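call fold(seq) -> tokens
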Amino acid sequence: MKKSLISIFVPAVILTVIAFVAGGSGLVMKGFTISMNTALRTALMLFVSFVLIGQLQILITKEVLERLLQKLSGLKGIIIGAIAGGLFPGGPYIYFPFIQSFNNKGMPFYIFITFIFGKNVYDFTRIPMEASLIGPNITLIRNLITLPVPIIAGLIARRFYKNRTIESILMKEGEKHAADNNSS
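ret:
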């Protein structure tokens, strides 16, 4: 956590100094105002998403998830994971904690990859805005061209990580980061 905070804090300070040099304290305050407005708009969404994540962790036990994944394994699970990713609302600050909540419940890594690709490629919530800004024909073409991408990514991940879970892959990396943070 310490290194993550520093990696964001240092650029923020540098950009604040640049804004001060470029436009004085007025420009810096304008940036802080935009930041506060963004934080306030996002705070409620974050709170509700963490409530949702907490309730899902209680309701979806490892056994329930295992039964669901047995029914939805393979290509069927990949397609459902891609569509679920595309339908999931919000940005990465909402869907990464959602996925993280399943890491100790045995979710296959390829479903995780499919969900992330589905969220970033499909993101069905942006289709109306995209259609209104660049036109429905271009939006349709873009969606048709990118339609197989999450499924292909899921199939590739399944090929290389078929029997691996999120926990088995991500926790090893997390343990390494935890050791790094404890030593600093």
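The radius of gyration is 20 Å.
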